Amino acid sequence: MAAPAPAPQPAPSALPVTFRPTRTRVVLLTAGAVMFVAISAIGLLLDDLHPGERLSFILTALLFSGVLALLSRPKVVADETGVTVVNITRTHRLEWAEILRVNLRPGDAWVFLDLNDGSSLPVLGIQPGVAKAHALRDARALRALSESRTATGAPGPGPRPSGG
């Protein structure tokens, strides 16, 4: 009796490829623009304000919009040599051999990369919050890329964990 064929793995994407939470980004940037316009308009339309107070409304609106722009920044860029993970305020460059496993477990807010130094790196560029199917597809594609690049590249130190 023949063993059942394993489930097909997604084909690795053509490189370079960028993964980002597009819907979340659109919502955040749109909300930032609307807030900036609304708060600035209120500051400019109120008659009893001095110029410094009007400026404070505009600066506050700019601050809120800037925070939402930072929250829309996360992405993951995979190329031939490795992965660049851009989170809210930090950017990490990883070689393929440094990545042991790509994880997106049920209930996780975003993907985690298990690294060969024993640490785990959150990847906010793939998050299932608003677009779960899109995030699962991206996580599978990144996992397939990682597995194909690690298998063909130099192996990292120690055994690779299975599953994931």
Q: Quick summary of this structure?
A:
The protein has 164 residues and is α+β, with helices and mostly antiparallel strands. 40% of the residues lie in helices and 19% in strands. It has helices spanning 22-45, 51-71, 132-152; strands at 17-19, 75-78, 82-86, 91-95, 99-103, 111-115, 120-123.
Characterization of this structure:
This protein is α+β, with helices and mostly antiparallel strands. The protein has 3 helices and 7 strands. The longest helix is centred in the first third of the chain and has 24 residues, at 22-45. The two termini are 29 Å apart.
How would you describe this structure in keywords?
elongated, 164 residues, four-stranded antiparallel β-sheet, 7 strands, alpha+beta
Q: Give the helices and strands as they follow along the chain.
A: EHHEEEEEEH
Whole-number average pLDDT?
A: 85
Main sheet strand line-up: 1-2-3-4
Structural class: alpha+beta
Main sheet specs? 4 strands, antiparallel
Layout of helices and strands, plus pairs?
Layout: E1 17-19, H1 22-45, H2 51-71, E2 75-78, E3 82-86, E4 91-95, E5 99-103, E6 111-115, E7 120-123, H3 132-152
Antiparallel strand pairs: 1-2, 2-3, 3-4, 5-6, 6-7
